Input
Amino acid sequence: MSTLRRSILYSGSFDPLTNGHLDVCRRACAMADRLVVAIGVHSSKTPVFPAEDRAQMIREAVEPLAQERGAVLEVVTFGDLAVDAARRLGCSLIIRGLRDGTDLDYEMQMAAMNEAMAPDVATVFVPASPATRPITATLVRQIAGMGGDVTSFVPPAVAGRLAARFAAGKAAGA
Output
């Protein structure tokens, strides 16, 4: 049995989990022995899915990737700073996906602030694959909310849950 050497924290709202998130998880599992997907829970936000549902979707989609690469997956929630969660959970790295220059500017600022607060936790950036570059959870929610097809942007189980969630909302409003 091997000893865990490196743990990576991947934080976000994951509302919903997208193929872009999966792309980052796949890469993280190739870099580390343990991937902790940390779902940010903030009282000022009203998500489409409760944290427990998001955690279940993440486990369903990411566990096979982790197992394939020999990594351990943990899914947790947190309500404090991501860098504090990383320290508390024993992660020496935070991974962030970059779609474009706007993401890079924002994430560079965040990484610098995190380094100032926790120099022992490094940030690793991975570029989005070309197929996932345009995907954002916000756009996925908007498309699904208007009855559009999101199957090419999210894992199949997530697409089904989005369709059910927004169909239920339309039925309630009808």
Q: What stands out?
A: The chain has a mean pLDDT of 93. The helical segments are 19-31, 51-69, 82-88, 101-117, 137-145, 156-173.
